[in-house]
Amino acid sequence: MVQLRGSERAEFVGRMFDRISGRYDFLNTVMTCGRHHAWRSKAAGLVGGKENGVALDVATGTGDFAFDLLSKSFVTKVVGVDFATEMLNRGVVKAAHRGLKSRFIGNIGDAHKLPYKDNSFICATVGFGARNFIDLPTAISEMVRVIKPGSRVVVLEIVRPTGFIMSKAFQFYFRNITPYIGEILARDREAYTYLPESVQKFMTASDLADLMVEAGLREILVNKVAFGTVAIVSGKKSD
């Protein structure tokens, strides 16, 4: 997996998420002690509410971030886009079970080339998907392109902590504990070996904030949770 690049990496990641789709939500809860719900809720609270309209959730997976967005009075619908079919299918089923079928629109699509017109959405979000993108700057730029002026992009992601002690603890957990959790509970050691690799190769919260500035976003907000191992970074598109 380490050597995969470009389309090969994208295909690997897509197949991997389809394989673990049935246990993805459960594993998220186990590995974060249930805190991922609170983190998504906090991130959803940063999207703003300048006007009512449709929100975009990129790498929507099984839909949890989209459902938090739908709890906001100003969000009429959420378009959830993902390239992993089975993950998206589970999101659609969950939406129906929650009475949100008409408000959650699942689309198969590529974050690097979003199939939407400029200035279409009142916000764009991505939760725990940014580190899987082949070209993160392009994906962020696409999110900026499709949101309306004055709207925000919000990224929730596992990041590399900067403190020495937390950095060492972080590495130990993801390298030594995570693969075994994946093997035992998801019966897919490969998928949960990929997770620490992807996290280790990802950036710090500060790096992510800088990238969002380079994409043209302003008024950058950085919120760290989980002892600095998870960041919520948001930025506003110029009016």
Give structural notes:
By secondary structure, the chain is an alpha/beta fold. The protein has a single domain, classed as Vaccinia Virus protein VP39 (Rossmann fold, 3-Layer(aba) Sandwich), CATH 3.40.50. Helix content is 46%, strand content 23%. The protein has nine helices and seven strands; from the N terminus they run αααβαβαββαβαααββ. The chain has helices spanning 6-20, 24-32, 36-44, 64-70, 85-97, 136-146, 164-186, 189-201, 205-214, and strands at residues 53-58, 75-82, 104-108, 121-127, 147-158, 217-225, 230-237. It has a seven-stranded mixed sheet with strand order 3-2-1-4-5-7-6, with helices on both faces. The chain is globular, with a radius of gyration of 17 Å. This is Demethylmenaquinone methyltransferase. It holds the Pfam family Ubie_methyltran. Keywords: Methyltransferase, S-adenosyl-L-methionine, Transferase. One of its GO terms (molecular function) is methyltransferase activity.
